[in-house]
Amino acid sequence: MLTFEEAQQALLAMAEPSSHERVAVALCGGRVLAEDLVAGRDWPAFDASAMDGYAVRASDLADAAASLPIAGESRTGAPLAQPMLPRTTCRIFTGAMLPEGADAVVMQEDVQVTSGVAAFGRSARPGQHIRKRGEDLRAGEIAAPRGSRLGPAHLSLAATLDRRDLLVATRPRVAVLATGDELRDPGCAGPDGSIPESNGVAIAEMIARAGGTAILLPRARDVLAEVTAAIASALESCDVLVSIGGVSVGDYDVVRPALEAAGATLDFWKVAIKPGKPICVGRAGRKIVLGLPGNPASAMVTFALFGVPLIRKMQGDRAPHPKPWRGTLTHDHARAPGRLEFARAVVGGGDVTLVRHQASGAALGLASANALALIPPDVAQLRRGDPLNLIAFSELGL
User: What is the residue extent of each domain of the chain?
Assistant: First the structure.
């Protein structure tokens, strides 16, 4: 079996960069920049007030108690039309253009106004309460580098820089094929021993969160010819094929031979992790195939650890890997050593509590957790207070 690090590295080495497309800024949430977002002008574009108050020449307030006539006002979208004369002041509002001739702003709380005259009780220093032109960005500077995944703040920044559209990576098309004679649609009656198919919707949502386009295929029975045909058809129109179930070595586990029959070559199919040991990875031409185990916890955890970083890297994401952090276990925990375990955990304020439902088929364990706790393969006993490496679900698309 490969180690987790070996398997993840081997899979991500297969990722080929997506093509690019121009998309309206309003539709770019969650997409990955395929170009540097460069400022076309200084921002702010002019010296602006950072306060509601009065624009002044600092030198005019050298006296301890200066009084200056108010020569007009400058508000957002309507600056003072003429330069501000010496020994005058201008009413100004937050974000408004600083009048020519002014070099400071005094907060309105420090000014007394009577009959059009502003009385100042203290001096001012040049640059006081002013946002200078180009303070945030100079024309030609990079506002967001290529490979950034765009969130709300990035969209606001792009609009601020007068961008109507952005060049982003195309979404990888990821087909999802669930297999198994025992599967039926949720909410529908089935024979004894049947179970509702629950993995497809979860994996499709994780694909969407990673920036891909999920193609949820019809289920396939554990029949070699049927699974082979489904795989061959899917490979014609996707970038990545994710199969769920049937990747082990049982009599009815037909996915691996079906992949080979459909023209895929398998690079590896066992990884020393828990849950999710039976995972297979291969290629069909330039298409990547990822075979997940069928138990819900195993399927979602392995896709979070392998599929999500793969989809991110295909888009040129600068940070495809989840960022681990540290916490402290709140209780003793015994386990069978041998594989790196990704235990479902509830984390709050640095405290880590492993959830009770750790079985590979226990979807409840994932639904009640918010992080994975990494337990080294050689550890059999954990004690309260032991440190653990953690990966938050928000980093994994879970």
Answer: 4-18+171-314, 23-40+141-169, 48-131, 325-395
Backbone angles phi, psi at 124, to 5 degrees: -130, 150
Extract the tokens encoding 22.
Answer: 């121009």
Q: How confident is the model at residue 250 (pLDDT cuts 50, 70, 90)?
A: low
Cis amide leading into 377 (omega within 30): no
- Fold held by 48-131: Molybdopterin biosynthesis moeA protein; domain 3 (2.170.190)
Superfamily covering domain 23-40+141-169: Molybdopterin biosynthesis moea protein, domain 2 (3.90.105.10)
- Euclidean distance between CA atoms 88 and 71, whole angstroms: 6
DSSP 60: G
Query: Which amino acid makes up residue 273?
Result: I
Predicted local distance difference test score (pLDDT) of residue 194: 84
Token pair 């990494």 is at which residue?
A: 374
CATH class assigned to 4-18+171-314: alpha beta
Instruction: Return the CATH fold of 325-395.
Output: Beta-clip (2.40.340)
Tokens coding 237: 């129109």
**Residue 208 and residue 173 in contact, taking contact as beta carbons nearer than 8 Å:** no
Global pTM reads 0.87
Q: What is the pLDDT of residues 340-365, one digit of tens each?
A: 999 999 999 899 999 998 887 777 88
Q: Are 90 and 70 in contact (CB under 8 A)?
A: yes
Residue type, 208: A
Closest to 282 measured CA to CA, from 339, 325, 243, 237: 243
**Type and span of the H or E element at 289:** strand 287-292
Helix, strand, coil share (%) of the chain residues, nearest 5: 20, 30, 45
Cα first-last separation, the chain:
26
